[in-house]
Specification:
The protein is mostly helical and about 200 residues long. The chain has eleven helices and no strands. It folds into two domains: about 60 residues; about 110 residues.
Length: about 200
């Protein structure tokens, strides 16, 4: 987060090596989380493998804390470098876990990643509403692409329309914005499924 990416990747790699010998599943899953987060842009494939390994460990050991954070980072990684359906599934899992635990501050992080992803998919109005709720000092650090997504939304929608939609999202309750996000995820998945069906006479 401080911008020292090379040191972060080296430290995370060492952490995974140390944690691999630990009998503690939390230590192993959290080490894989730090590696995936540190390397998600420099080495997307390696980060994806680490995060998926960590997610399996977290689920097998019943650790929803690590599961939530791993799904959060996986969602952003897939949105930026991977597969649309996987990104939406991981982001949905992270949003749901954070909402269910009452962790509204951290719930804004996968919502911010979702908003930026919806901009890439061309779903501008829902992206603006979700961004309105998601913007915070924490999300601007965790999800730097949210800033450029908002710039793009202002270009496409106009400043006035973006501000109106963002205010609408900002005033929504956590449960309302989560339900809205799930609807947008379902809509995106249905749209993608329709596009994959071959046309027949």
């Amino acid at each position: 987060m401080a911008g020292d990416r090379q040191n972060a990747m080296a430290t995370a790699k060492h952490l995974v090596e140390v944690a691999d010998s630990s009998p503690n599943p939390w230590a192993r899953s959290f080490a894989l989380l730090t590696y995936g987060y540190a390397c998600c842009d420099a080495d997307p494939a390696g980060a994806r493998d680490a995060l998926r390994r960590g997610l399996v460990i977290a689920r097998d050991s019943g650790n929803r804390y690590s599961e939530s954070h791993l799904a959060n980072v996986l969602g952003r990684l897939e949105a930026r470098h991977g597969e649309e359906h996987a990104a939406l599934d991981y982001l949905s899992l992270a949003i749901r876990n954070y909402q269910n635990s009452g962790n509204i501050s951290t719930m804004r992080v996968p919502l911010a990643a979702l908003a930026a992803f919806l901009v890439r998919l061309g779903h501008h109005e829902p992206a603006a509403a979700i961004a309105g709720f998601a913007v915070s000092p924490m999300t601007t650090i965790w999800i730097p692409e949210l800033g450029s997504a908002i710039v793009r939304l202002r270009e496409v929608l106009s400043d006035e329309k973006y501000d109106a939609l963002a205010r609408k999202g900002e005033t929504m309750t956590a449960s309302a914005i989560a339900a809205y996000a799930y609807d947008q995820i379902d809509h995106s998945n249905r749209t993608r499924a329709t596009m994959l069906i071959p046309w027949r006479r």
